[in-house]
């Protein structure tokens, strides 16, 4: 896979920036529901394009190396960062 393949897949799904695996799956379901021939759509080529893009995105996610560092954890869970920041503060909860 090349970066351009990933960019094209993101364009098919109208995704920019960051997306979770759940968001990608939900977007795929919505696109298939809208364009599938059995649902009144007549866009076989569009369904093939959507499914090909989905496979690229899944492959990227499957091969992605996750960081389990404290910094990344707090980036992904900002509420935890705030809880830790204010937990010992006598005004906010300590």
From TrEMBL:
Sequence ranges assigned to domain J in this UniProt record: 8-72
Top-level taxon: Bacteria
InterPro entries: DnaJ_domain, J_dom_sf
Xref: Gene3D superfamilies: DnaJ domain (1.10.287.110)
Protein name per Swiss-Prot or TrEMBL: DnaJ domain-containing protein
């Amino acid at each position: 896979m090349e970066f351009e393949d990933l960019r094209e897949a993101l364009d098919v799904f109208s995704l920019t920036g960051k997306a979770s695996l759940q968001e990608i799956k939900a977007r795929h379901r919505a696109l298939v529901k809208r364009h599938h021939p059995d649902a009144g759509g007549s866009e076989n080529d569009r369904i093939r394009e959507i499914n090909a893009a989905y496979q690229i995105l899944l492959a990227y996610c499957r091969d992605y190396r996750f960081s389990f560092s404290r910094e990344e954890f707090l980036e992904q869970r900002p509420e935890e960062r705030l809880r830790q920041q204010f937990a010992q503060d006598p005004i906010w909860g300590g």
